[in-house]
Amino acid sequence: MSARISAKTLRYLIVIGLIALWELLPRAGLIPELFLPSLSSTLIAGWTDAGEYGHALAVTLYEVVVSMAFACGGGILLGAIVGSLPRPRILIMPMVSSLYAVPLVILYPVFTVWLGIGSESKIAFASIYGFLPTMLATAAGIQTIDPQLLLAARSMGATLSQRLVRVIIPAAIPTVLSGLRVGGALVIVGVVVSEMLISSAGIGYLISRYRTILDSAHVFAGVLLVLFLAIGFNAVIRWIERKAAIWQTGTRAGQANEDIATGAMQPAT
Amino acid sequence: MQPLANVTPLKPAARAGAIEVKNVGQVFKTRSQDVVALEDVSLEIKPGRFVVLVGPSGCGKSTLLMMMAGLRQQTAGTIAISGAPILQPDPDRVGVVFQEASLFPWLTAEDNVEFPLALRGVPKAERRAKAQDALKLVGLDGFGKRHPHELSGGMKQRVSIARGLVQDPPVLLMDEPFAALDEQTRMTMGDELLRIWAATGKTVVFVTHSLTEAVYLADEVIVMSARPGRIVDHLQVQLPRPRTYEMLSGDAFGSLRDRIWRHIRKSA
């Protein structure tokens, strides 16, 4: 029996090692607690102010869910239109592509002027932030549908609505999902960043406030919560992907999906 | 009931599988000029015949096939299948087999074959039974649960043929169905197709670039010329059936292939 470790075990070991280092290095005094408080003091800070963090998490979650609905709903809808009709594509695509390169965060102060410093401005910012990749992926997903598939469906007597439901939507699902993965992650970034900049509630706000009073343990408790939020989102997307796109291995759409998922479509922040 | 006094009764049963193409033309309008893709094409195909369309690239053979399938409208003339004009796709009269890529990758082989039946709301049990029969006919018994990416090129094309046959149309139109296959698979699939054709008695119209394939498969070969697409020859292939690999090197086979090649060289 050889003592070879599988990649999965190795990954767990690395994570456990990092967690252990997080606890041990600050405790041993190798890293000042101001830079990196130990895991236990972070957890204690979070636990003692659980009410405050719970409230902040509720605010952030609410903003994330609403923004995601806007970003994904709007992105898929407009992406479908742009992907299937050449005229809007010619009008909109160049604009969207250049907009994608702009660091949208510069717009956030404007949103606070328009919408105030409550949840509305965060939702507006995060929605737009997550909307672009979702829309671009949906448009690409629909544009790259093999025309032979649609021709074949027509030859079998499929009506327009049958072609939409039975060919266009299933064919576009993998690319749309990869767009949702990027778009959804950006929604979380958008909400937390905007909370950190100008706001009065949410995890980002807590992180920013505790930073100004140099309370690192509380800052890291907030960071940990955002981390869990992102991990949770990733798990949901993975679950949907497994449910919806078993077939994508070996197809063109599946390939494109992997390119995007591995970060070929990273926007400017 | 509406009275049908003035309607000439069609006898589709008597002419099921017959194809009549009369003075068909197709003009593509582009910005700078009109391109005549097909000009005055007429031909008659009797039920149960295996007819192959060959010609240089751009001769309109695929266009003609798409018009027979009701997927494209001609700008002149009429096309009738089983005695009635074809104005739109009608899977009860015409099954179409495309090149390899036209299977739905998210459906299993049997779901792909059932697709045309599902479109018209055929109950699940009946669908499944018909799909199983069709898959058995093309030699894919037991492969129904696989997805296209788990099948070889030849197997995918068998699924396409099963899908074209599942509604039992009298006519099967095939647009370069084996073009994406390697040489050996192509030969095997040719023999398989002839076996299926003999077992079902369909009228087959088959478009190909390969002259060998054309002569090997066909009862009749229709040779077309390019721009404008016209029929330049209509050969009867009298070789006995079943066709065998040895015939490929025979004189009769060679002279038929040479005759087609001379037409194509002239017009290319």
What's the short version?
The complex is a heterodimer of chains A (269) and B (268). Chain A has helices at 7-27, 39-48, 50-84, 86-101, 108-115, 119-143, 147-155, 160-197, 203-212, 216-244, 252-264.
Secondary-structure map:
The complex is a heterodimer of chains A (269) and B (268).
Chain A: H1 7-27, H2 39-48, H3 50-84, H4 86-101, H5 108-115, H6 119-143, H7 147-155, H8 160-197, H9 203-212, H10 216-244, H11 252-264
Helix pairs in contact in A: 2-10, 3-4, 3-6, 3-8, 3-9, 5-6, 6-8, 8-9, 8-10, 8-11, 9-10
Chain B: H1 12-15, E1 19-29, E2 34-45, E3 50-54, H2 61-68, E4 76-81, E5 84-85, E6 94-97, H3 109-119, H4 124-137, H5 153-165, E7 171-175, H6 183-200, E8 203-207, H7 211-217, E9 220-225, E10 230-236, H8 251-267
Parallel strand pairs in B: 3-8, 3-9, 6-7, 7-8
Antiparallel strand pairs in B: 1-2, 1-4, 4-5, 9-10
Outline type of chain B? globular
Distance between the termini of chain A: 49 Å
Tell me the β content of chain A: under 5%
Largest sheet of chain A: none
The fraction of residues assigned to DSSP E strands of chain B is 15-25%
Q: What value does the Rg of chain A take, in angstroms? A: 22 Å
Question: What series of H and E elements makes up the topology of chain B?
Answer: HEEEHEEEHHHEHEHEEH
Strand element count of chain B: 10
- Compute the CA-based radius of gyration of chain B: 19 Å
- Report the mean per-residue pLDDT of chain A as an integer: 84
Oligomeric composition of the shown chains? heterodimer
Biggest interface and residues each: A-B, 24 and 24 residues
